[in-house]
Automatic annotation (TrEMBL):
Domain CRAL/TRIO N-terminal residue range list: 12-50
Annotated organism of origin: Nelumbo nucifera (Sacred lotus)
Name assigned to this protein: CRAL/TRIO N-terminal domain-containing protein
InterPro entries the record matches: CRAL-TRIO_dom_sf, CRAL/TRIO_N_dom, CRAL/TRIO_N_dom_sf
One protein family per Pfam: CRAL_TRIO_N
Region ranges (Disordered): 1-25
Length: 111
């Protein structure tokens, strides 16, 4: 990583801590995604990062989606849960050809 990027990441970490959150579970590549999304502005990136953490905690409180939440997809053989990779990431295989959108789904059309 360049010196400018390293400085921006360090500044973002400090700003996130000031906002009452933590970056200890996330590496530099994750923080760089937020910096790139907010043209290397550590303050804006930190605010976006904290909002993302809150959203993630609300929608995925366990840190993963348990099998009990997606039994229909598992039974339809759309999704296969394969365990954890050597790096500790969940491994999921999705067969998109078996997914069909619901017919009663309302779509808004803009004119």
């Amino acid at each position: 990583m360049e010196k400018q990027s390293e400085t921006a990441v360090a500044e973002m970490r400090k700003t996130v801590e000031k906002l009452g959150s933590s970056t200890e579970k996330h590496g530099d590549p994750t923080l760089m995604r937020f910096l790139v999304a907010r043209p290397m502005d550590p303050n804006k990136a930190a605010k976006m990062f904290v909002q993302w953490q809150k959203c993630r905690a609300e929608f995925v409180p366990l840190g993963f989606i348990p099998e009990s939440v997606i039994p229909d997809e598992l039974n339809a053989r759309k999704v296969y849960l394969q365990g954890i990779t050597k790096a500790g990431h969940p491994l999921v295989i999705v067969k998109t050809r078996r997914h069909f959108p619901p017919k009663d789904h309302i779509q808004s059309k803009s004119e």
